[in-house]
């Protein structure tokens, strides 16, 4: 399989596209610039199967309806943030003066940690709250990658001072789920460059001593 990181919107939120040899793909966090993303998908002859959301902050959901409407595909989200898509007060767009960023209800609600199978794609879903109460990480063992959203970054961790955030929960999520993965696992964050579990174990100052 192949994957592509596509920064979108004013906060350069990382959208990811993961595709197989048949050009079927999954889209993680289509945050903004929906028409730009549609153009890229069509230029590369990719066939989207689903949208996976790591969480429902405004900068991760801005292009959800454009992508869903164009390809008629389902949206997956954690149960704790199922109401956030339609509510600018919850998704933060109102708080940060970003206008009324909204999306329709999700089609699939994730209620527990499990193995998610979509066509030929198999992902392990981890509940990784702390940045937000319904943050999820998606681990693709066969490819050695984890889509971590705003939980873990290169040399940093997600902010926990937004509504529903918790610093201790964030650290526990990272320690219990992400740092237990093989050290060579690539961590694909919601902002900034990719990193690896091993690099963050060795050099992330926010994790030292935890």
Map the helices and strands.
Elements: E1 2-8, E2 13-19, E3 24-28, H1 34-43, E4 47-52, H2 58-61, H3 64-71, E5 75-78, H4 88-91, E6 108-110, E7 115-118, E8 121-127, E9 136-140, E10 145-149, E11 152-153, E12 156-157, H5 167-178, E13 186-189, E14 195-196, H6 197-203
Parallel strand pairs: 3-4, 4-5, 5-6, 10-13
Antiparallel strand pairs: 1-2, 2-3, 7-8, 8-9, 9-10, 11-12, 13-14
Helix pairs in contact: 1-3
Task: Explain the overall architecture.
This protein is α/β, with parallel strands linked by helices and 210 residues long. It has one domain: Ribonuclease Z/Hydroxyacylglutathione hydrolase-like (Metallo-beta-lactamase, Chain A). 21% of the residues lie in helices and 30% in strands. It has helices at residues 34-43, 58-61, 64-71, 88-91, 167-178, 197-203; strands at residues 2-8, 13-19, 24-28, 47-52, 75-78, 108-110, 115-118, 121-127, 136-140, 145-149, 152-153, 156-157, 186-189, 195-196. The strands form three sheets. A six-stranded mixed β-sheet has the order 1-2-3-4-5-6, with helices on one face. Strands 7-8-9-10-13-14 form a six-stranded mixed β-sheet. The protein has a two-stranded antiparallel sheet with strand order 11-12. A hairpin with a 4-residue loop joins β9 (136-140) and β10. α1 (34-43) crosses α3 (64-71). The longest helix has 12 residues, at 167-178. The radius of gyration is 16 Å and the shape is globular. It starts with a strand and ends in a 7-residue tail after the last helix. 45% of the residues are buried. The model has no long low-confidence stretch (mean pLDDT 96). Its cofactor is Zn(2+). InterPro entries: MBL_Glyoxalase_II, Metallo-B-lactamas, RibonucZ/Hydroxyglut_hydro.
């Amino acid at each position: 399989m192949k994957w592509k990181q596509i920064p979108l919107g004013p906060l350069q939120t990382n959208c990811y596209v993961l595709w197989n040899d048949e050009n079927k793909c999954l889209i993680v966090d289509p945050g903004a610039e929906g028409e730009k993303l549609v153009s890229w998908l069509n230029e590369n002859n990719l066939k989207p199967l689903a949208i996976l959301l790591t969480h429902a902050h405004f900068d991760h959901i801005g292009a959800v309806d454009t992508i869903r409407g164009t390809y008629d595909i389902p949206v997956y989200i954690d149960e704790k943030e199922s109401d956030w898509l339609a509510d600018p007060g919850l998704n933060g767009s109102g708080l940060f003066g970003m206008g009324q960023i909204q999306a329709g209800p999700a089609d699939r609600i994730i209620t527990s940690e499990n193995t998610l199978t979509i066509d030929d794609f198999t992902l392990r879903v981890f509940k990784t709250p702390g940045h937000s109460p319904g943050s999820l990480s998606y681990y693709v063992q066969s490819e050695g990658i984890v889509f971590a959203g705003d939980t873990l970054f290169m040399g940093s961790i997600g902010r926990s001072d937004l509504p529903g955030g918790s610093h201790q929960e964030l650290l526990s999520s990272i320690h219990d789920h992400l740092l237990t993965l093989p050290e060579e696992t690539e961590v694909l964050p919601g902002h900034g460059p990719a990193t690896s579990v091993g690099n963050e174990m060795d050099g992330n100052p926010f994790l030292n001593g935890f």
